[in-house]
Structure formats: structure tokens, C-alpha cells
Amino acid sequence: MAIVNGIDTQVLKEKMAAMKKEPALAEVRSRAHNKWSGGAYCRTTIKDFYAAGEDMSHKDRFELPADEPPVLLGEDHGPTATEALLYALSSCVMTTLVYHASVRNVKLNSLEIIADGKLDLRGFLGLSDEVRNGYSSITLTFKIDADASDEQIRELVELGQKRSPVFDMVTHTTPVNAKIESAAAVGQEV
User: Fold this and answer.
1) 3-class state of residue 184 by DSSP
2) H-helix or E-strand containing 35?
3) Domain boundaries, the chain
4) Is 42 left (phi over 0), alpha (psi -120 to 50) or beta?
5) d(CA 34, CA 57)
6) pLDDT, tens digit, 9 for 90 and up, residues 19-53
7) What is the assigned CATH class of domain 1-20+79-174?
């Protein structure tokens, strides 16, 4: 057993080999149930998912709040949805970087990613069709101390972005389908 950066690289390599041999094992379906709580406040529950060919559940049920700060008419019960996107992006890029560093036997001493997104609310509020609804730019700043050369660190940062599912979703168009269920289905517990 070789543990690098807290990752059992032997198990990771075995899983990678199994997915390469049987691509269906690589399919993952994530699920989130979002429920409005009034004003700008809502909560998302995450508890089950599909991976390795079967439905599974997390050991805990995760409740993620979202709100707006008072300056944007919210009550600050949680991060904004756009801040949550920065959380998802930086977390996914970090995990990707850590996995690839571990498989390459690169020891990370410390790793931080600071995500900074620029947003103009005129798009969201319908005040201008010339302004994008979402972030106009996102900057990821990496702070890395590793037992590696500068070139290896640059390669890991590039891999973190190239292989991160969330980075891919943010930088490429992802089809999103919307369905409407009957009002009777609204409010049912997850």
C-alpha cells in the first residue's frame, strides 16, 4: 500500500485500470435536491448518487445552504450560488491535482487555491442584454509547496484544470435540460 498525499495510490490505480477495461464503471450520476426556504434562501440536499454501476448513498446527508448577503436583499444564511460555484470549481481542481500528483508520487506539503470571480449583476437583473448573466471571468491562484520542480508543479496545475470535471463544465457548454413536474410533487421530502 502506497499512501501519497493521503491517497492510496495502489487502490486508485486499480480503479483506473478497472474503468479502462470496463468503461461503464466510470459513469457517475450526481444528484442534488434544492428547496426554496423564502426570500433568496434555499437549501440543497445531497445524499445519493450513482457510481461503479450502482446506486449508492453518502454516509451522511449533506445540507448546503445558499442565500444572498443583506446588500443583495438576502439574510446571509449561506454563500451565494455564484460563490458555491467557486467552491465547486476550486475543490474539484484541487482534488484533481492531488490525485494526479499522488499517482506521480509527488508529495504535496501544502496546497491552496484562491478563486476570484467577477460578476456584473445587470445581466442577472435583466437591466442589460449586453452584460453576461454569469461570471465574466474567474481567476484561480495556486499556492503550492511540493517536493517537485517548478516544471512539475506547472504540469500538475495544468492537469488539475485539464482533467477537472467542474473546470470542464465551467469552461465548456454543458447541456442542461429543464423539466416541470406537477405542483403536487412540490414540497415532498427527499
Assistant:
1) helix
2) strand 33-38
3) 1-20+79-174, 31-78
4) beta
5) 17
6) 999 999 999 999 999 999 999 999 999 999 999 99
7) alpha beta
